[in-house]
Amino acid sequence: MEFEGVYPAIITPLDNKNNFKEDEFRKIVEFNINSGAHGFWVSGGTGESVYVDHNEIKKVIKSSVDQSQNRAKIIAHVGAITTHKAQVLAESAANSGAHAICAVPPFFYKPNIDTIINHYKAISEAAGNIPFFVYNLPQSTGTEITPQIMKEIMTAIPNTAGLKHSGPAFTDLKGFVDLNISCFIGNANLMLPALTLGASGCIDGPLNAAPELWSDIWETFKNNEFNKSMIAQDKAIKFSNIIRDFDMHASIKEIISKRLNINCGNPILPLPQLNNDEKSKLITDVKKLNLIDFN
To answer: Which one, 122, 135, 180, 260, has least CB within 10 Å?
Structure first.
């Protein structure tokens, strides 16, 4: 498939005024590509897109395309609170050269299926009908995309290329796979089980802090070295669980900052922040695993 493999849901480095730090971002993109990433999920949940100013999101997407230089696929998240705002981001993403766009369904006011399809269709058309991905994140949006709903979306929007399945219903994965689309699992701890069911790869936040761990899962699986894949998944789970023990956004930013000798800043409030003691314990705990290198 055109879209497959290890796709970090990349963070958005920010200064203390929540402005995009482009130089740091480019270093993160480069680090991930050199560590085996096949693509990026840009300005998604890990990228704090709900809180980042839309003009800054446009810069993030453009920078990801420019830095990757077609060495990695860029799937740009353009989901927004209104259809018009999402259309503006979608058009900008397409003009910047993103390989695909993605979006969560309408949120806050619970939509019906017609509302979802009309919303997605308008976004897709604004981007010139480049490949379109659905972002299934019901625990945040309140809307569950099932295989049946996905089938209806594909009928209405023929350029639908796939989805990121971050919902709790893991059993729906096979239903998505059977639709012959790129189905990425949105849980870093479930990459290997998902691959065995035919998933196209994994998209999640922990990947961009240690892409080599998930690249190892992918490469060993593709080489039919299943025992090695299980060992690789176990290592990735141990790393991912430490991130989830703290706060995902803040801990990923802190680990990347320490690994690359940069300053990714803090997450945007009201997302939790880590104090200095918590940051120190986080890095100590990660180093104790002896799974990744720090500069």
So the answer is: 180
Residue 200: inside a domain, yes or no? yes
Residue 294 is assigned to a structural domain of this protein: no
The CB-side HSE value for 30 (13 A sphere, CA atoms) comes to 10
Contact (CB, 8 A) for 95 and 103:
no
Handedness of CA 241, 246, 249, 252 (dihedral sign): negative
Which pLDDT tens digit goes with each residue over 44-75? 999 999 999 999 999 999 999 999 999 999 99
Q: Which amino acid is at 73?
A: K
CATH no. for residue 196?
Answer: 3.20.20.70
Q: How far is CA 280 from CA 28, 165, 207, 265, 276, in A?
A: 21, 33, 21, 15, 6
| 3-state SS, residue 50 | coil
* pLDDT tens for each residue of 258-267: 999 999 999 9
Q: Which two tokens stand for residue 193?
A: 């089980």
pLDDT in tens, 128-181: 999 999 999 999 999 999 999 999 999 999 999 999 999 999 999 999 999 999
Number of domains in the chain: 1
Based on DSSP, count helices (H) and strands (E) in the chain, helices before strands. Answer: 12, 8
pTM above 0.90, yes or no: yes
Distance from C-alpha of 236 to C-alpha of 218, rounded to nearest angstrom: 12
